[in-house]
Specification:
The complex is a heterodimer of chains A (252) and B (275). In chain A, 31% of the residues lie in helices and 23% in strands. By secondary structure, chain A is of the alpha/beta class. In chain A, the strands form two sheets. In chain A, strands 5-6-7-3-8-9 form a six-stranded mixed beta sheet, sandwiched between helices. A three-stranded antiparallel beta sheet of chain A has the order 2-1-4, covered by helices on one side. By secondary structure, chain B is an all-alpha fold. Chain B is globular and about 60 Å long. The chains are: A alpha/beta (252), B mainly alpha (275).
């Protein structure tokens, strides 16, 4: 039986105003893949996720998510945006933030119900945030906020999880814990994670793609120095850290 | 003070203050957390065009204000969402155009504009009974909208992009929120005037924010603060023989500044103590 494509991009071109951001992107992500996309800032990583979510429409090319156009698949996608500048003082509790993830299932003019509250409790437990459910979101540490946003993405039981720079505001001690949550999740869903942190990504993901306007991807976890150099437009040294499990990539 | 309440205009003033506090307390919370203070200021000032039109065509300037505030809210929503005009430019353009139209309309009506000052700066003591009824109806509409769309407005204010992702019609709801601001402007116009409306839309909510992280409690507190400011300001203006609208605004502004000042000093003191 052929593996089902969860995400499929064919010859996708995207530009903002007249500046090209993504050029000729071809990507196929199979069910239960855990794909890491790395690349420099401004390389189009967030834009690629927005294309998959249907928030940004490509100038050219075809996008299919879970067999449908992205807009129609949104209710089956969990999205963890890059949170650098949201209002930390916003009067909202962790529980209320996670509940927002149920909106797609509930819809307009209907109140949240008991099964929504149960789903929120479950999602909070899953990321270990039950005891912080009543806290205001800005009172939490960076890692805890990140887990709350993951819970919000999980609460609608998505088939595809998109994470944009999830470790940006998390200190390194929390990162390992964070990747353990993802290890657990990848048994149930397809995950695409965008990051500029090459080291951390290569340990936990199954496949890696490099993105800098163009996408360099050959369906495995091996990245050659040539690909990295093409991505970052400068020579890059691969560094392996000793204190975390790592894999040395073979030369080819 | 208390003997003053035997007069009908005093009872009307109290009723107007109450109704104004409810509208600005509830909608002000969204204005503050969604950071649309200047946009609301623009909508408020653009209503001057409607007031002028009312004078020119000899219908109630309050109705003209309602027409223009709703129109400017919809225009603002459309221009900021569907065109490339930057939001703060749109704010300035609409603000000035509405005012300019008002000046021209009033000029065309041969310059005869009784009570013009009360629309500009408010006069809680001259609110007629018919406007009290209108304010009550608008309050009911606002409360109903917030009850019906509570979870939508929360998501819209906190994270619009996520709202889009989970399939919420964010642009439509944003328009609706701006229309609620427009209705609140109409409720407040008789009490503090169109020029000072923006203060009543922000001060009570900004003060309430100091005390709670729960948006419902923030609304309740903000309504209470609105009442305290309105009646406190009214009493002060009565005692000192000052303009009521301006006194209400100055009182709430001073309380707000003191509150944020105390909070600032306290956190500095705490930093020092923990250092």
């Amino acid at each position: 039986m052929p593996v089902k494509d969860v995400v499929r991009l064919e010859n996708v071109w995207v530009s903002y105003a007249d500046t090209p951001v993504l050029e000729d992107i071809n990507l196929r992500v199979a069910e239960h893949d855990f794909l890491g996309i790395i690349g420099p800032n401004g390389g189009g990583k967030s834009t690629l996720l927005k294309v998959i979510l249907g928030l940004k429409h490509p100038d050219r090319g075809m996008v299919t998510v879970l067999g449908n156009p992205p807009e129609r698949s949104r209710s089956r996608i969990g999205y963890v945006p890059q949170y650098t500048e949201y209002d930390r003082n916003f009067p909202v509790s962790v529980r209320e933030v996670v509940m927002m993830g149920r909106y797609g299932k509930t819809g307009m003019l209907k109140p949240y119900r008991q099964d929504d509250r149960d789903a929120v409790a479950k999602a909070l437990e899953r990321v270990g945030m039950t005891e912080h459910a009543g806290s205001q979101i800005g009172q939490l540490s960076g890692g805890q906020q990140q887990r709350a946003f993951i819970a919000r993405a999980l609460v609608a039981e998505p088939e595809l999880l998109l994470l944009d720079e999830p470790t940006a505001s998390v200190d390194s001690a929390m990162q390992t814990e964070f990747y353990e949550i993802l290890e657990d999740l990848k048994k149930e869903m397809t995950i695409i994670m965008v990051s500029h942190d090459i080291g951390a990504v290569s340990v936990f993901v199954d496949k890696i793609a490099c993105l800098n306007q163009r996408l360099y991807y050959h369906g495995s976890k091996e990245i050659t120095p040539e690909i990295l150099e093409a991505t970052y437009k400068c020579p890059v040294q691969l560094i392996a850290h000793g204190d975390i499990p790592h894999r040395v990539l073979r030369e080819h | 003070m208390f003997e003053a309440f035997q007069f009908e205009f005093m009872r009307n003033a109290l009723m107007a203050g109450l109704l104004a506090s409810i509208a600005c307390g509830i909608v002000g919370v969204y204005v503050v957390v969604k950071k649309i203070v200047s946009m609301s200021g623009s909508i408020a000032h653009a209503t001057f065009g409607g007031i002028g039109l009312g004078y020119l065509l000899k219908f109630s300037p309050v109705m003209g204000a309602m027409l223009f505030s709703l129109l400017s809210a919809l225009t603002m929503g459309f221009v900021t969402r569907k065109t490339k005009l930057p939001t703060d430019t749109a704010i300035g353009v609409l603000w000035a155009m509405g005012m300019a139209l008002g000046v021209i309309f009033i000029g065309l009506s041969a310059g005869y504009a009784p009570d013009l000052m009360s629309y500009l700066f408010g006069n809680i003591l001259t609110v007629p009974a018919s406007d009290i009824v209108l304010m009550a109806v608008l309050d009911l509409i606002i409360i109903a909208l917030v009850v019906i769309f509570y979870k939508e407005f929360l998501l819209l204010s906190f994270d619009e992009e996520f709202g889009t992702v989970v399939g919420m019609p964010v642009d439509g709801l944003y328009m609706l929120l701006l229309c609620m601001v427009a209705l609140t402007v109409v409720v407040l116009i008789r009490v503090v005037g169109m020029i000072l409306v923006i203060a009543m839309l922000t001060f009570p909510a900004a003060l309430a924010r100091q005390f709670t992280y729960d948006i419902k409690k923030m609304m309740a507190l903000s309504v209470v603060f609105g009442m305290l400011f309105t009646f406190g300001g009214l009493w002060l203006s009565y005692a000192l023989n000052l303009a009521s609208g301006a006194t209400i605004i100055l009182l709430s502004g001073v309380v707000l500044l003191i509150s944020y000042g105390v909070t600032g000093l306290r956190s500095r003191y705490r930093l020092k103590a923990s250092a």
